[in-house]
Amino acid sequence: MPKQSTKVYNNDQQLWSDFKAGNHDAYTTIIHRYFKPMFIYAIRLSKDQDFVKDCIQDVFYNLWKRRENISHAESVKSYLFTAIRFRIYREQKKWNNFDELNDDYAFDAEINIEIKLIEDQNTIELKRKLETVLNNMPPRQKEILYLRFYENMDHGRIAQIMGLNQQVVYNLLHKSLMRLRKDWHVLLIAFSSFASAQSILK
Question: 64 pLDDT exceeds 80?
Answer without folding.
Answer: yes
